[in-house]
Amino acid sequence: MKRQWTKGLVVTLVLVNVVLLGALVHVNMAPARAAGFKTTDYVVVTGNMGKGLDAVYIIDLASNKMAAFAWDKTAKRVRGIDRVRELEKDFKQK
Question: Fewer CB within 10 Å: C terminus or N terminus of the chain?
């Protein structure tokens, strides 16, 4: 009697784990959405600027604009680089 109860408990626990694993995979497969943004067409590129600065460039493909931010390792803070650039104007051929 005890053996049947133990076997039933093991089968139940295995089934519960399979269901939980399936739910976890389903939740993680949903695409991430950034709150507050109208589009999701962004490209993020990192780079080393030298002199203890690492940079992050964020390009909005929908509006063709780019913003750049630098992490100052010595001051331990983020600072904006220049201003938001309009790529269409910057790369326009004359």
Answer: C
